[in-house]
Each structure stands twice: as C-alpha cells, then as structure tokens.
Amino acid sequence: IEEEVAKLLKLKAQLGPDEGKQKFVLKTPKGTRDYSPRQMAVREKVFDVIISCFKRHGAEVIDTPVFELKETLTGKYGEDSKLIYDLKDQGGELLSLRYDLTVPFARYLAMNKLTNIKRYHIAKVYRRDNPAMTRGRYREFYQCDFDIAGQFDPMIPDAECLKIMCEILSSLQIGDFLVKVRAEQGWEGKVGPGLSQEKVLCRGNSSPSDQVYQGSRKEILFSLGLGSLQVNDRRILDGMFAICGVPDSKFRTICSSVDKLDKASWEEVKNEMVGEKGLAPEVANRIGDYVQQHGGVSLVEQLLQDPKLSQNKQALEGLGDLKLLFEYLMLFGIADKISFDLSLARGLDYYTGVIYEAVLLQTPAQAGEEPLGVGSVAAGGRYDGLVGMFDPKGRKVPCVGLSIGVERIFSIVEQRLEALEEKVRTTETQVLVASAQKKLLEERLKLISELWDAGIKAELLYKKNPKLLNQLQYCEESGIPLVAIIGEQELKDGVIKLRSVASREEVDIRREDLVEEIKRRTSQPLCIC
C-alpha cells in the first residue's frame, strides 16, 4: 500500500498545482437545454392539443425503453445510422439510445405477436446530429407518434394519418404556413383561404393542387391559412430510379441525395450524385426530369400515362394508390392542402409506400424580411416490412404512421410569445386563501385543506401574518384569478369574502357554497398563448 501511495504522490507532483487548470463550466450538454416553468407551460399546452387529437381518433398509448439493443436499431435508418448514440458495454449487452419511436414500436409488435393496434407514443429520442437550437433542432428531443398497424383496405389508414396531421397543425394556431413551390416562369400562385392579397407573395387564379411545376429552380412562396403537406410514394421513387438506370445497389444512397432538394438546388444535388456517389451524368439528368415535378391529383394522372413510368410495376402500384388516396383526402376536405412532390424521398430505409412531410416557414418579424425556415414539423409514411425484420418467421404487419416534430413547434410558439411580450401562466391555481387580519393562520389552513379535499387548486402564503396587500400582489403576479379572504367578521357570519383579482369586486359567499362558486367562476379553460 505504501508503495502505491508513493507512486500516486509522485504522479500528483508531476501534474503540478491546481492553480491555472481549466475550471469546470456549468452548462447543459451540446444539443440539449433546460426548460423553465414558463416554457413547460407552453409545452404542456401543445402536448394537450396533440394528445386530444390522437385520442379523438381512437388511439391507445404505449411506452418503450429509452435504450434498445444495438442490433434492434442497426440497418433501419440508412445513412442516418451514424447519428445513433451507442452506449458502453453494460454487462454483456450492446445498447443504443433510441433514434425514433417507430423501430421500437415495430419491435414491440413483433415481440408481443400483435397484428392490430392503433397507438400513440410521446417520448424523447436521441440523435448525434449537429444541433441548431434556434431552429428547434436538438440532440435530445420529443417525438409525438401516431401509428395504425394491421391489414386494412388500401389508403384508408393513410388518409386518416394525413387528416390527423392537418388537424394538429391547424389546432396549434402557430400562424400561416409558407409553402415552397418550384414553378415554371410565369406561373403565379393562388391566394389561400382567409388571406389578404398583401400577405401573399404571388397572385393569380391557378391552384397548386391542379398544376404541374417543372424545370425552373425559381421558388415562389405563398401563404395558406392551414398550410400544405407534401406526399410521395417510395414505390414510385424506386420505379423512377429503375427506369432512369440507377443500379439497384445505389437506390438508397441516391434516394438520400434526392431528399436534400428542399435545402439545395438541383445542380448541387446532381453534383453530389455524380461526383460523390458515382452516378452517370445522363442517369442523373433523367432523374432530374422527374423529381422537379410537383402538383396534385392531375400530376398523378399524368404520370400514369407516362410511357416509361407506367411500364414499371412498382411505380404503377404506387401511382394507383396515390390516386385513391387523393379521393379519400377530398372526402376528408383536405385535398387542397396536400401536394404530390416527386422530390420527397425521406431518408429512412424502412419506408415501403406513401410518405409525407409538412414544412413550416416562420412568418417574418418585419414586412419585407425573408421568412425563417424551421424545417420539417411533421412527417410519416407506410412501412409494411419493418415488423417482419424482428419476427423469427418474417411475418409482416402492415403499418402507417406520423410523427409531430414538437421541438420546432415549441421554438415558434416561444419566439412568438417573447415578441408579443405575452404573459404565460405557469400554474393552474384557482384561488389564493388569504387573511385580512393577524392570527388567522389556523383558519387559513383549515379552509385550504377543505378546498384541496374538494379538488380545488389553491395556494396560501407561507407566513403566519402576511399583509393583505402582499397577498393580493402575489395573485396579480401569478395570474391567480380569485382570492378567498378570511376575517374575524367573516368567521362570525359563517361566510368567506371572494374577490375577483381582475375586477376587484368582492362578494360574501356562504362557506358551504364556496367550492361550487369557485368551480363556476373558473370553469373556463386557461389560455397560455
């Protein structure tokens, strides 16, 4: 022991004194953040909107571990697999933090031999990505997933998922969506519902749902009251790659390049395909003729007549399903909000059919400023083969679902509230129990206990003899709407003085009627944004 201690002392002497060493910086890890009570109040409001929509559509809720066996996640995310957080060996099991909620859901279905479920799951996921905090991109973030698993008639569950996505994005009231449209020179957009001409950056009588846009990289932005969603089908992409001459081995990596068209020009994407991924230039040009097309059901019908694409079985099946999907979307009243986008590729390997994505652009703070993009706020698609990867006998369970990117939505809501300097309630307290004179602590404690037992959300100040003015000021600062005031005269008369903080009106309420009166006055839902 003495020898080992001597060695350690020698090593310590070599390290030198503690002075001048780098001090420990107290901060959250890169790509993560803390949330204040004000921010949490906003988050809970957003979650309430999302969960109520999921429940309205009949979903059950499940939960899964925050980490999975590494082999469970391996090979499911294509080029994004490098973003998975691997954990150190913990007693013989190689583990990774979950990258999304979809692969754990598929593992859950296979492990429990489930073939039919409609579920939602709200939980944190982890990605070793380059964070962009102001745009709502983190390394630790929440996903809100809704999925329908089971064998059903084509496109009915898919249409419901798109309906849910529209309902949630509309209910959150985060402002107008700015939709990117690649247009030919001379095309002009149509004014969206409920918008003035001044709010739109292009005008005309044509609608994005019945036009085909091709060729030019000019981007026109126009504003829709409820936004627009982009939709595509993985089978159409694979069929398109096949007829364009893409080798089978390059399908997924070229698909990943195409998915960058929402952030980069066609020339940049083409250079990546040819220069970095070894695709022949003429093949890339043929792909460009297709992926620069956007439209609605008319584009689907046009591609069904395409002499090359219509000869590919996969693409023909995908186009047929998309045509049926648009029929259902019309019945749901949301067809005008859905854009068929051939450049939408969604980089994840497990998609097998229809895929969709909603992109939100933040409204500019000042007139004339460019809108700030926060990227995708919702996405999803069909993945019929994922469960079969985990089943010993390879039995497939068809699945389709969506994921709401709530962190980016939180960023928008928080920025808006800060800009408006809007006050946010961080508690749901209905009433403060106060006293008008000294030596009434026991009476306050008795009354607040009665209110708590009756389900009333109530507070009191933690002082024996607080001043009435201080108690009223606390209510104003905290947003508490009512004050139940106890005084010597009120105790004699068997009443409680109930004061409205906003109007400062006071009324005597019999003690036995106080609970019902508080419930009646605070029955309106509390709004925080």
Automatic annotation (TrEMBL):
Keyword hit for Protein biosynthesis: yes
BP GO terms, sorted: histidyl-tRNA aminoacylation; mitochondrial translation
Reaction catalysed by this enzyme: tRNA(His) + L-histidine + ATP = L-histidyl-tRNA(His) + AMP + diphosphate + H(+)
Pfam family, one: tRNA-synt_His
PROSITE patterns, alphabetized: AA_TRNA_LIGASE_II
EC class of the enzyme, as a word: ligase
Entry EC no(s): 6.1.1.21
Keywords associated with the record: Aminoacyl-tRNA synthetase, ATP-binding, Coiled coil, Ligase, Nucleotide-binding, Phosphoprotein, Protein biosynthesis
Subunit annotation: Homodimer.
UniProt similarity note: Belongs to the class-II aminoacyl-tRNA synthetase family.
Protein name, UniProt field: histidine--tRNA ligase
Organism: Diceros bicornis minor
